[in-house]
Amino acid sequence: MTAETSQTLDRGLRVLKLLADTDHGLTVTELSNKLGVNRTVVYRLLATLEQHALVRRDLGGRARVGLGVLRLGRQVHPLVREAALPALRSLAEDIGATAHLTLVDGTDALAVAVVEPTWTDYHVAYRAGFRHPLEQGAAGRAILAARQNPGTDPGFSLTHGELQAGASGVAAPLLGVTGVEGSVGVVMLADSVPERVGPRVADAAREVSDALR
């Protein structure tokens, strides 16, 4: 810990990260052991975080992430979208297809940024805010592939006609970005996807991942 940083804030953020990594919550004793501090310090940290609704404690005394984090999370989409736009623009212009950034929203895939090519005679209309089940469409399938193979690069996913008749989709997951689960992809009116599209989409996904780290 350097002189320019706050030990208390650091511990509070570590508490939130620990709680975010568990589905069943943690007790004061468990947090104390994981943080390497005494229980009194943990009590103070939890009380402060509870005041801001970032932490809640159930009847059994286990601490969990509170609903207050949702208010913070709503501000993530604009930041992610801004970071992804240069790569999406380049991808859309290069491939001549609509490019999109899709993030997980509950059990759905949610398009948070869309860029259409400027030089094509026609392209698929795809709007930010469009959502679909993760099990359908290349964007969702790419995300699920990354979930099923943690720590590896599953490459790209390709689908045809799952979301729009006559449209093919190619997407690759964002990898190595803490707290962000999503994919970068393109959608085009084509029965078959040119061979170079998959690797180009995977490159764009890596570019966005690098921008978000």
Automatic annotation (TrEMBL):
Residues 6-67 form the HTH iclR-type domain. Gene3D superfamilies: 3.30.450.40, Winged helix-like DNA-binding domain superfamily/Winged helix DNA-binding domain. PROSITE patterns: HTH_ICLR (PS51077), ICLR_ED (PS51078). The keyword Transmembrane helix does not apply. Keywords: DNA-binding, Transcription, Transcription regulation. Residues 68-213 form the IclR-ED domain. SUPFAM superfamilies: GAF domain-like (SSF55781), Winged helix' DNA-binding domain (SSF46785). Pfam families: HTH_IclR (PF09339), IclR_C (PF01614). This is Helix-turn-helix domain-containing protein. It comes from Streptomyces zingiberis. The lineage of its organism: Bacteria, Bacillati, Actinomycetota, Actinomycetes, Kitasatosporales.
